[in-house]
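fold-stage: in
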Amino acid sequence: MKEQESKEEQESKEEQESKEEQESKEEQEIGKELKDMKELIEYVAKSIVNAPDDVVVTEEETERGLTFKLQVNDEDKGRIIGKQGRVAEAIRTLLRVKAAKAGSRASLEIV
């Protein structure tokens, strides 16, 4: 009887450890996706602006998902926004697609 109980306890511990490992892997994947999204924004922005060294991307967790804040030189804001906001909207679309693949939501603010 005790052997059966100890086997059940051991199986329970193994299941818990398996769940913890899976959660850890998911957290690592989310972290990787977050880094990928940030790198994507930086890459696109640095490709467009005249002063790529002034490009800074920060992320912030909100109740609506992730918010990325893109800072560029004042002279380059027009390039990032584009005519009628088309460039900014294209960057936001790429970000939303990447976030959707990661199973989250993301938005971009240009400051």
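fold-stage: in (second)
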Amino acid sequence: MGKLLKFLARLATAAVALSVLACAPVIVESSPTPATSPGASARTAAPTPTPEATIRKKVGTTVAYLDGWKLTVAGFANVPPQTGTFASTPSPGNRFVKLTVRYDNGTAKEASFNALDWKMQDSAGVRRSTAFAFVQLSDELNSGRLAPGGFVTGSILFELPASEQHAVAIYESFNYLQATWELY
């Protein structure tokens, strides 16, 4: 009986996940496949990579979704080493950085914001979640709800390799197309 209940719970979770994904707006742009000329070689061409479903921006620019939800990466900076009994230090060879973001709710409904929607990807392709450390950020972004017309600005802490010079910030939410900001 216990195995059956676990199976049914997993099945229900999968059904909910699929229904949420089915409602998400997705815009995918692709290039047309070039036509082959009549005398062309019969050799097989390399497969065309699947286009990324993402929006690309630079720091200081805003991504505006069709429903009025807007995101801005307002800043990116190193976090100076901190002192004190409980101050955290980054792992050897790493540094702490903060990403300052702004959410604007131009939709007609209350909407959620969450620091956990953000990732930092380094030049090696490693995606990092927010750093959980004892580092004081005066404007730390947490999570909450925004009324229509509301906005919130805050910073999120990440840990990156000390020599990293090509990291990108990535916004990933179930309801919106992925957005990426070049930080350098």
